[in-house]
Structure to design on (392 residues):
DNA sequence: CGCGACGTTGATTTGCCTCAACGATTGTGG
DNA sequence: CCACAATCGTTGAGGCAAATCAACGTCGCG
């Protein structure tokens, strides 16, 4: 299996070029960390200083409401970045939890090192700009769906876009991501697959 | 009143420094365009090549569903950027309309010029990265609200964050942004302000 | 084995929508 | 300057999508 750092380099170089010395510098700033299933990567209230790049496994970020119910903001599997950007950017206490849905390996970099990397390796600015533009485009779709589509359509859209995650994720996590109860998603599925 | 380009420069230099020659180059790429109230900036189906920086007035982007109903993705007043990132990034036909809610002045730059500017003025990469990080942080909040809060709370949150837009925007536009019908928002307001 | 996590099903409730009607305000042309 | 049409906000009656609550079956795992 590929080395963790090689996965990161491959992902970056799909967008911008890196020299060998760039890679060495990056390697020295990113730490490989392992999380067991159900383990927390970060909790509500903390001020986020870390970005996570998933090498293997699956993380999720979620908001816990006043009644204790979880609402999934995003999942992150191999080659995805995940953190609480709101807390990371504004350095305010996080409202989100991040935890592991599977045993997971991540590469972590802290804010200060990341800033230093931007200075030393300017193409990383572009890499990050491109990644974020893509994220914004995707999240824009999600907002539109939440505003204008019933749950059944949102579910079909999710399958079409992230179908490879079905079977890997528990169904009630998908329900939470879609903004419905597990019972209702079950109901939707029954109706959808009745006539096939 | 401030010159349009000066507004743009001021916004950029709040994040990164610009030299005078940088400014000249930028000035040569951005065109000042005026839109009358109700005029379209962009329509569904087009492949977006343009970014808009609002100098004066107010634009909105929205999705029109299969029944013809509009769902507001965002508003943009002075010093905001607006475009359809999904179409802009992936160069696919846009699903969004953008139009003017007031008589509006915008500075426009096309993709090719913007790419050229990134090459010639690398700090713009950082500027854009920072702008997008902020957008992502904000939109993340909106998703959380849509998933976990009833409409009344979302409305209060909107007022707290964008209160300065109330009175400037028609109420039914805010309803659309929040994902409820105008009638229901009216209802919410009645209940909220009954006891004050 | 036994317990907790997961999915399903059904009965009831509720947040929000639909549709229709009605003032108030704005603006536009005669 | 008035008449008329849009546009906008409000109110109310009835309806639907999705939530809540509760019970039950299955599976994987310590």
């Amino acid at each position: 299996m590929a080395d963790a750092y090689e996965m990161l380099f491959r992902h970056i170089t799909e967008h911008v070029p890196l020299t060998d010395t760039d890679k060495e510098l990056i390697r020295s700033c990113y730490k490989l960390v392992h999380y067991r299933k159900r383990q927390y990567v970060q909790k509500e209230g903390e001020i986020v200083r870390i970005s996570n790049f998933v090498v293997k496994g699956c993380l999720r970020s979620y908001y816990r409401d006043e009644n204790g119910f979880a609402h999934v903001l995003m999942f992150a599997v191999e080659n995805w970045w995940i953190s609480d950007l709101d807390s990371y950017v504004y350095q305010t206490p996080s409202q989100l939890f991040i935890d592991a849905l599977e045993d997971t390996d991540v590469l972590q970099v802290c804010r200060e090192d990341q800033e230093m990397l931007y200075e030393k390796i300017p193409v990383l600015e572009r890499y990050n700009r491109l990644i974020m533009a893509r994220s914004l485009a995707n999240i824009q779709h999600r907002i539109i769906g939440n505003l204008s589509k019933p749950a059944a359509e949102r579910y079909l859209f999710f399958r079409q876009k992230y179908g490879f995650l079905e079977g890997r994720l528990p169904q009630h996590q998908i329900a939470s991501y879609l903004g419905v109860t597990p019972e209702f998603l079950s109901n939707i599925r029954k109706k959808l697959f009745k006539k096939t």
The mean pLDDT of chain B is 96. The longest strand of chain B covers residues 50-56. The beta strands of chain B are 31-35, 40-42, 50-56, 59-64, 70-76, 81-82, 96-100, 104-110.
